[in-house]
Predict the 3D structure of the following.
Amino acid sequence: MRIRSSTKSAAFTLLELLVVIAVIAILSAILIPAIKGARERANEATCLANLRQCGTLILMYAADANGRMPASGPDGSWDDELLRNGLISDFSLTRQGCPEHRETLSATYGYNYMQLGNAQSPQIGSRPVLQIENPSETIMVADGHNLPSTTWPHLVYWEDSFWTGDRAPLGHREGINVVWADGHASWISIDKVYPMPPQKLPDLTQGYNLPVPYHFARIKTAP
Ligand SMILES: [Zn+2]
């Protein structure tokens, strides 16, 4: 009697164990994606807030610099300008990049240097804010990459070759977070950032009046 009771008890315990394992497996299957999704949404919101702050700082810089945007160039990047101006005390906001991609060493926030501030291009220089034709649709800073081969850190790369393979945009949900030249920040589908095939990319040497039909900048003709 005792033996039968012991066997019955052990079998029941095994069954319970199997049920518990099954329940854990089911809960994991349900909860892990939900937790991952919640973490991704939190990172996306933090990223957007970071970019909004970058945009505010850049516009504050411009207000203090005769209405001109910071320029990346031989003396450093756009945020070196902010540092020199005293608007930031370190690069923790601007160079740690998107919180979703911190483990990726090249992750950073990129500046639209080819339209807004390029000290190595006399045509671009430090762009006057008032010359940006449509600030609410012109990227100022966005989720981006460092390029290992350049001494210019954290720029938005818009040449098609920069957006392939391991340089694919480090963003969110097939898109990137952007702070626009008017200071508002939003997510945008990557398709809307780069809708053109590579052969139609504009001539980047033309400076002010680039016929750019997408979200980098339409620039008013210099007076
Ligand atoms: Zn991001």
About this structure: The beta strands are 107-111, 117-118, 125-126, 139-145, 175-180, 185-189. Residues 2-209 form one domain. The first strand starts at residue 107 and ends at 111. The first helix runs from residue 2 to 64.
